[in-house]
Amino acid sequence: MSAKNKKQVEVQPLAPEWKFFILLAAFFALMTGLYAYWSWLYFGSVEPIGTTALTLLVGLCVLSGGYLFKLSREIEVRPEDDPHAEQHVAAGEYGHFSPWSWWPLICGVAVALIFLGPALMQWWIAGIGVVVGVIGVAGHVLEYNRGPHAH
User: Fold this and answer.
1) Given 31, 49, 58, 131, which residue has the most CB atoms within 10 angstroms?
2) Hey, how many other C-beta atoms are within 10 angstroms of the C-beta on 32?
3) Cα–Cα distance, 81 to 138 (Å, whole number)
């Protein structure tokens, strides 16, 4: 696309993100009102648990959207904010990843054991999960400090 065909568009960073959260907050606020009204019609009083949970959900969406709105005023425009950006603009180093690493699997097993223990009321399983988790996190952090991939 040539420069002549591009329209001059005012680009605001993080605009889709904060607008999404604010729209979610508006939707959940509407649903909270409907839920409270419906429970009042059905039970004769407003059901407190669901109404409180939905109200807190509205607050969470407003908090996230407000933070992203504030942040959008302070940061520079990202390549993904420009609708006419080329793919090579965002190219570059994204970090270093270990495709052969088994440590994330061990960490996942540890989290599964930690949550499985209380679910089955067997706290010793959660204890084993904590031990496996400490070993998994230490192995993941120290993976490049020893062995064939040491730096």
Assistant:
1) 58
2) 19
3) 38
